[in-house]
Specification:
about 450 residues; mainly alpha; about 75% helix
Length: about 450
């Protein structure tokens, strides 16, 4: 057993919270509620939940099985389970994908960090302020974006350098409960506003006549994108998992928490937006432009907006920890390199790689790659190409290459599950999941 494997999650709850933290990111909190509301409300929500259970959950279980079955991080796991084959490139693809994702994800994380810092002393919400102009000013300022990017990555480096138990697990044990507490406070405040029920109906009432094929495809794609599967992050996380923890039940809790957060996000945002007669906006605009307008009209609005920004910051950080961890673990797997040193070097390289994405809204705004800015092109490469390919390769690997005896053993270990549940999971991974991934991949490539 190598030196790296001396590290383990201290408990099942630590593993579940960290895995849920990896899955719950900015997309789940700001984009998912918007698309839900614009795509049929409760009808879209039901479709998303169904796809998450039938596609996302089986994929999450698969990554958990690969990681704990091999007891190795992403690259070494495929090397051990399929020696002397090209399957090792599934792990390498994961590391490359996480590196690219972290390079532009940290730019957005830096924006959230800067906004959070400005909101606490009351420098965001002001009478007569133009929040769209403020947002443009911040993301187009070199020093501000560089500072945000550097500070965001610094937090990640410090946490990951302390290791699994003392770093990532400890941080998630504080950040995830705080995220839920802040969400509940904001939901209660939002629901007590005048006309709040209009927002609730907008978000939750099933309206199947508004469901389009595009909305269904988005729900299908979101079902595995939302759970941080495809880049073997969960392979690395589960490699630190002890054998006395049930993989299916742990994966089930991660899925439940992810869906719960998505619903809380909608209940926090839409009642407030509708209460003040505003229209919801997609992407960064919802967080940085629409919500400041909403909170500016509330009593103690600055306080609640700061709380909301902290919530977003927590979600961004818990996701980025997993992205940096898969990079660091790949280069410390042989036990010959210091985790601290690799963490700092990795953070520095990601910072340098993130500079072009950070400048995409200022001096590099006119620099295009296939008609896209560096930020958008990197996002497209990661989300529309590498992530679906990674999901498909993992699905093929666990069914057609990994030893079935080991797969079944890991699935049923300590769970007291019926063998029929394993048979159902295996059927889903063999047929439904690959077909779903291919459909999403074709849709993403042809409609982007």
């Amino acid at each position: 057993m190598d030196g790296r494997k001396k590290e383990q999650w201290s408990s099942r709850i630590g593993f579940v919270l960290s895995s849920a933290g990896a899955a719950i990111g900015l997309g789940a909190i700001w984009k998912f509620p918007y698309v839900t509301g614009m795509s049929g409300g409760g009808a879209f929500l039901l479709i998303f939940i169904a796809f998450t259970i039938l596609i996302g959950l089986p994929m999450l279980i698969s990554e958990f099985i690969i990681g704990r079955g091999a007891e190795k991080e992403a690259i070494s796991a495929y090397k051990k389970l399929a020696p002397d084959t090209l399957w090792i490139w599934v792990g390498r693809l994961g590391v490359i994908g996480c590196f690219l994702l972290l390079s532009f994800y940290s730019v957005v994380g830096g924006w959230v960090l800067i906004y959070t810092g400005l909101s606490i002393p009351g420098m965001i919400i002001k009478d007569g302020a133009s929040y769209s102009e403020l947002f443009e000013a911040i993301i187009s300022n070199h020093m501000t974006t560089f500072l945000g990017l550097a500070l965001f990555l610094l937090i990640n480096v410090i946490v990951v350098s302390f290791g699994i138990q003392n770093g990532i697990e400890r941080a998630n044990k504080y950040l995830m409960p705080l995220l839920f507490i802040f969400f509940i406070v904001l939901v209660v405040r939002s629901l007590t506003l005048e006309r709040a029920m209009e927002g609730v109906r907008f978000f939750l009432t099933p309206s199947f006549e508004n469901i389009t094929s595009e909305a269904i495809l988005y729900a299908l794609g979101q079902s595995f994108f939302a759970l941080a599967v495809g880049f073997s992050c969960m392979v690395t996380y589960s490699s630190y998992l002890s054998k006395d923890v049930s993989i299916p039940s742990s994966a089930g809790w991660v899925v439940i928490m992810n869906i719960f957060v998505s619903v809380l996000a909608g209940l926090a945002i839409f009642p407030a937006v509708f209460s003040f007669g505003l229209e919801p906006a997609e992407g960064p605009g919802l967080l940085f432009i629409v919500l400041p307008t909403v909170f500016s009209k509330m009593p103690f609005g600055e306080l609640f907006f700061s709380m909301f920004l902290l919530l977003f910051l927590f979600a961004t950080l818990t996701s980025s920890f997993s992205l940096l961890e898969i990079i660091v673990s790949a280069f410390t797997a042989n036990g010959n390199r210091s985790r601290q040193a690799v963490s700092w070097v990795s953070g520095l390289i990601v910072f340098i790689a993130g500079i072009p994405a950070a400048l995409s809204f200022s001096s590099l705004a006119d620099f295009q790659i296939f008609g896209k800015t560096v930020f958008d092109a990197t996002d497209y490469l990661v989300s529309n190409l590498l992530l679906p390919i990674g999901n498909l390769l993992i699905a093929l690997f666990i069914i057609h290459k990994m030893d079935e005896t080991l797969v079944k053993q890991e699935f049923l270990l300590t769970g007291n599950f019926s063998p029929s549940l394993y048979t159902t999971w295996r059927w889903l991974m063999k047929w439904l999941v690959p077909i779903g991934i291919v459909i999403v991949f074709i849709n993403l490539v042809t409609n982007s």
